[in-house]
Structure prediction request, 334 residues.
Amino acid sequence: MRPVIALLVVALVAAAIVVFYQNEPEPDKGSVVQEPESPVAMTPDPPPAAPIVAQTMPAPEDPLPAPEDSDGAPVREIEIEPGANFMETMSRLGLDNIEERLAEWYKGRGYAFSDQTGTYLLEQPYQEYDDATLRAFADNGDIWAQQFLAERLAKTRPAEALELYQKAAASGSVNAMQQIVKLYSRIDVMRADGPNLDDTHRQQLFAIKDSGNSAKEMSYAWAVAAELAGGDPFLSNQRAGALSDRLDDDGRQRACEMAESLYDQMVNARTERNLGDFDRQPPPFMLGTIESLSGSSCDNLAGRSGLDYSRCENVRAVIAGEPNQLVICNPDQE
Prediction:
């Protein structure tokens, strides 16, 4: 990843994302066959709070071509000098209060935020509740309780955790879908006959592994389903691409078919509960172009996008002479 692109990722994360369930529980060492060759990070660790500024980069030797969209239309271009504040630049593009907008966007997809003391900024102190209390809330459809309880159960009761995450996913939590991706990736490398498992853990692992669906394929299928449900397309594309590389062509095709089925099941569940469609509003800004972000990683899902880009535009951001592509979205503009 080029330094400037890495900078923009930090900008996106540092502005608002102190995400929920950052640390995946480590599998029991005695139960692991092997770690995946290419571990997939579901969410980035939050960087320390600091002013977001452009790094000094050498200007390219060749002049930059005039930017154009895929249809030949001119693309707006902005320039950020070294030391410039990224959020101030976004404000000039009509994106005021971008930290709050990002926080609202991620929270609406099941991510919890914490303050500097580590206290989650939620209506209730879910992290302080015991399992019985969380179970009572979860049974009443509380997606935060479902996710907190699932996170506690994931290491030793994976089948129960999957069930809770799936309920939260159908309620609109893209975070829950991504936690399912992580959990299936862990299950894929765990031995159900490991010596350090209790009977219930062993039984649940055997049931999952004997279900007829490869855990590796299920992990990729849920990553694609999260794309369709309106997850962050830049991170989703990276995640799905890394998971796809671990499958052969037949496995990838099966996973893509499963992704479509999983997504349709969630849509049907939402329809039965009168929840309507998933939230299609994009985040305020993203790395890439509309064209690169709007497609699916599965051929059978070509043309289906999880987000509505009708109020977005491609922007070329030149930071200290280094060109980068951004997508800027402002739902307040007609």
